[in-house]
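Ops channel
N.P.: pipeline sanity check, posting one input/output pair.
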């Protein structure tokens, strides 16, 4: 297994945030981590990328315990996409993407392989050719997110971790970003672990989903196994309509506003619980 997590727990100041988390990820797979606010998704990602230390349990990456890697070693094959990791001002798009190569430079700041061509390919893939000399502070949120992904691509990782990559993006840019990541995953056999709030994107783009609730794993499985009305209601406290995507057959959810349904006489409350009338 590429990643093996065994009975992982995390406490902050004696408050338990993650309890007995176990799962594994195969090389080349995309695992989506979903769950409500505060369920522990970001904390799990921080433990998996070595940013936070575990309280109990074991994380094995490529057959080795995570504590046995040093930071620079990990940075050569593990990348984390975070928007706030971009430098605030003063750098052009091209310079920022080149920064992804830092882990491969020697102590003089030189790299032995010619990476200029790689940077050109990435600029092109991310649709950033025309913006390569633009300073970061003059980019929109969507453009900055593409630069952030470009920087992680330059790192040529084997494992990519993403925390809410589509936040602040409009639907066009959400699909564009997720498509680029999926293409990259399939072309390079990249392993992807992504925290996602949008369950429809998670169902479309992830091979498997891990559903967290109150710091525990409720279920792991294919999108069909996880995006089910009963599980979503249990964890999120709202009853969605789950439908099959008309083209891909994958589960997609439609939200039901309770107040609207009640007003229209389509639902009523029974014993404190909303029931949708057929
Ligand atoms: N450094 C910390 N110190 C203390 N508590 C923390 C720390 N980091 C996270 N927590 C707590 O751990 C819990 C889980 O937080 P986490 O950010 O992992 O949840 P999440 O599922 O990513 O939430 P969201 O969807 O709202 O981003 C929260 O109650 C949070 O307050």
């Amino acid at each position: 297994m590429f990643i093996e997590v065994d009975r992982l727990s995390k406490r902050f100041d004696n408050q338990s945030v993650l309890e007995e988390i176990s799962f594994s990820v195969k090389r080349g797979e995309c695992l989506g981590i979903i769950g409500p606010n505060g369920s522990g998704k970001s904390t799990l990602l921080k433990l998996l990328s070595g940013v936070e230390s575990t309280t109990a349990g074991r994380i094995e990456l490529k057959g080795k315990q995570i504590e046995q890697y040093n930071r620079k070693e990990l940075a050569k094959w593990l990348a984390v996409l975070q928007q706030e990791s971009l430098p605030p001002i003063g750098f052009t798009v091209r310079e920022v993407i080149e920064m992804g190569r830092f882990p491969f430079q020697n102590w003089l700041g030189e790299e032995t392989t010619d990476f200029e061509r790689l940077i050109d390919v990435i600029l092109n893939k991310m649709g950033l050719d025309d913006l390569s000399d633009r300073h970061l502070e003059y980019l929109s949120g969507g453009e900055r997110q593409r630069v952030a992904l470009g920087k992680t691509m330059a790192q040529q990782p084997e494992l990519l971790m993403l925390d809410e990559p589509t936040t602040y993006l409009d639907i066009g840019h959400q699909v564009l970003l997720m498509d680029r990541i999926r293409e990259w995953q399939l072309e390079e056999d990249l392993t992807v672990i992504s925290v996602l709030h949008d369950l429809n994107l998670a169902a479309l783009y992830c091979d498997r989903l891990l559903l967290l609730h109150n710091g525990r794993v409720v279920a792991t499985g294919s999108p069909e196994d996880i995006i089910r009305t009963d599980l979503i209601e249990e964890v999120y406290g709202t009853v969605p309509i789950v439908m099959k995507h008309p083209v891909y057959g994958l589960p997609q959810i439609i939200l039901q506003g309770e107040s609207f349904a009640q007003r229209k006489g389509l639902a009523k409350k029974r014993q404190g619980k909303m029931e949708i009338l057929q």
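N.P.: looks fine end to end. Residues 12, 17, 35, 37-43 surround adenosine-5'-triphosphate (CB under 6 Å).
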